Amino acid sequence: MEKRKVQLVGRSTLTVSLPTSWVKKTGLKKGDIATIIPERDGSLKILKGEVFTEARKACAIKADLYQEEKTIERLIVASYVNGFDIIKIFSNGRLRSNIVEAIREAEFKLIGVNIVEEGSSYVVVQCPINPLMFPIDVALRRLYTLFIIMLDEAIQALKEANLELAEDVRKREREANRIYLLILRLLNEAQKNPSIAQKIGLDNVEDILTMNIVANVLERMADWVDKIAEEIVKVEEKGVGISEKTKLLVEGYAKKIRELTEKAIKSVINSDAQLANSVANSFKQVLEPEAYKITEENSHFGVLFECLFLRRIIWSLHRIGEITVGIAEAAIDRSVRSMEQFIEELETEP
Question: Distance between CA 329 and CA 326 in Å, rounded?
Answer without folding.
Answer: 5
